[in-house]
Specification:
With 146 residues, this protein is of the alpha/beta class. It is 29% helix and 22% strand. The longest helix has 17 residues, at 78-94. 47% of the residues are buried. This is DUF523 domain-containing protein.
Amino acid sequence: MKIISACLMGCACRYDQKDNRVAEIEQLVKDGKAIPVCPEQLGGLSTPRNPAEIVGGDGFDVLDGKAKVIDNQGNDVTEQFLQGARQVLLIAQSVNAKEAILKERSPSCGSNMIYNGTFSKTKRKGVGVTTALLMRHGITVQSEES
């Protein structure tokens, strides 16, 4: 069983109420091989919502209290991102998931690249908050560009 970002299977749960549908990933859900999750929604954020970026590091730094997740209006949404990551981990552990396919560049789900925290569409190496938590618990995470 895999965990996947819900936006990749066509759920309109992105911050802008759009999706990042990838047919092959949608098929994994239809075949009962993957469970869709949206960490931001699980953390209590609404859809649509203000875009957010990690400021001061990456997802590991957020977990360690060294960085924050801030939306483009200056609101600190770190706790919602942490809560969403914890909920995704709970779901992953409950179905014994060993792998996750998550949305690249997301402040929750990115596994290679995230935005740099300046809201300038500048990317940098790093992982999102949910990815960092899953990795710390031995779950392999790969990201999907869409």
